[in-house]
Amino acid sequence: MPKQEPFERIRNFDEVALGYTPELAREEAGRCLGCKNPHCVAGCPVGIDIPQFIQHIIEGDFGAGVKKIKERNALPAVCGRVCPQEEQCEKVCVLGKKHEAVAIGRLERFLADWEAASGAVEKPDIASPNGRNVAVVGSGPAGITVASDLVVLGYDVAVFEALHEAGGVLTYGIPEFRLPKAIVKREVEYVKSLGVKLHLDCIVGKTRTVDALLEGFDAIFIGAGAGLPWFMEIPGENLNGVYSANEYLTRCNLMKGFQFPAYRTPLKRASRVAVFGGGNVAMDSARTALRLGADEVHIVYRRSRSEMPARIEEIENAEEEGVIFDYLTLPIRLLGNEEGWLTEIECLKMELGEPDESGRRRPVPIKGSEFTMKVDAVVCAIGNSPNPLIAMTTPGLRTGKKGEVLADEETGRTSREKVWAGGDVVTGAATVISAMGAGRKAAKSIHETLSE
Q1: What is 6-118's CATH number, 3.30.230.10, 1.10.3720.10, 1.10.1060.10, 3.40.50.720?
Q2: What pLDDT is recorded for position 373?
Q3: Mean pLDDT in the chain?
Q4: What is the DSSP string of 103-140?
Q5: For strand 342-355 and strand 384-385, is the pairing parallel, antiparallel, or unpaired?
Q6: What are phi and psi of 157, to 5 degrees?
Q7: I want to staple 398 with a disulfide (CB 3.0 to 4.6 A). Which of 129, 288, 406, 440 is the partner?
Q8: Global pTM?
Q9: Distance from first CA to last CA of the chain, Å, rounded?
């Protein structure tokens, strides 16, 4: 796919990937084998009829292609950009066994963007009101999916969002250059146009509790995400200049820190930045730091490149842009000056041992390999847990060791009657499409239960 050149894109927050032209889309779609037993459909968490929407592209009927996708996915412009298709639908593409898999995600993005540009947005048939109402907590991928699925079935659906803008992690977490916020707003507006009501600045567990919502709704879906950041719990993490990735990206994305001084959001313009972690959030943080003007940005990761959980595409983008990767390196201490500002990190070199429970080789410290690195900002991007607020204010709602809401994998049912949950609040930080898949299962279960 065409994209901005690295030397250009590190100076702006515009989208890196530029998208297919109609000609490129039809050329790529023409590579699809049209399998009679399409494994790609089984590999999609929401079960999109992939061969059929690709066939519509081949035929040049882009409107029919969009309609086919939206039968199963209300957020195609989002999923086409940020979902790890290489680990899902494209991973099981038959063509990929000997050649490169069909670029399913890029074709999905093309259709969604074509629809937006054409202005011909088709809506599904909406069932007559059935007299039932459902509250959805959180407007991220899981919540938006539940809301859109149920409103089409005739339910009165209200979404309660804690922040001042909808979209959840799509809005506060993923940078503009990977997922433009105008696209998120467009997708949210589409769901609202179906009849979903959206209440912003409503912190469930504080503004209203789950039990209070149950007094006025027949069912509740909790899709509040995983907004509690993890830190490494090493000395010096309370120094000025140390951020969680949640805070760093929220200041830049939701609070428009990248548009300073038009938006006067406090966000340190550091010259030497270290990002701890190896996932997509670490890549987002490092690439954001470059665009904010950092002279040097390091990814500090305790394993090797092959063990990194980030998408290969995102790692390659970061490499192209000049991010420095310090593999087999573990931060053990943060050092600061007398004013309390971060000045250095102390690290330890690692080597890989036997595989651990994740299946990746366990990093083992190399004795006597300590060294220091001068930095003036650190972003900790090693993971997240659900915010404990909802669990703390909902008696009888069972949670796991990391604060995740315990819910049935196939239905989303929780330990509380009339309460379902799905997405990152159940699994911890995961993918957009897996959250949508959980939302779809929960919507089906809610409908079946309320129809009894």
Answers
A1: 1.10.1060.10
A2: 97
A3: 94
A4: -HHHHHHHHHHHHHHHT----PPPPPP-S-EEEEE--S
A5: unpaired
A6: -115, 130
A7: 406
A8: 0.93
A9: 48
Query: Helix 22-29 vs helix 104-118: angle between axes, to the nearest 10 degrees?
Result: 140
| pLDDT tens per residue, range 126-137 | 999 999 999 999
Helix axes 141-152, 432-450, angle to 10 degrees: 40
pLDDT tens string 196-251: 999 999 999 999 999 999 999 999 999 999 989 999 999 999 999 999 999 999 99
Residue type, 297: V
E strand or H helix that includes residue 341 = none
**Superfamily designation of domain 133-227+385-450:** FAD/NAD(P)-binding domain (3.50.50.60)
Q: Where are the domains of the chain?
A: 6-118, 133-227+385-450, 231-382
The answer to whether 105 touches 90, Cβ cutoff 8 Å, is yes
- CA-nearest of 63, 41, 184, 50 to 123 is 63
Which of 217, 218, 20 has its CA nearest to residue 104? 20
Burial bucket for residue 70 (CB in 10 Å: 0-12, 13-18, 19+): buried
Query: In sequence order, which residues have a C-beta less than 8 Å from that of residue 393 and are 6 or more positions away?
Result: 205, 206, 209, 210
Using CA atoms, how far residue 388 sits from 234, 238, 324, 344, 436, in Å, is: 23, 22, 35, 33, 22
Alpha carbons 434 and 230: distance in angstroms, whole number: 21
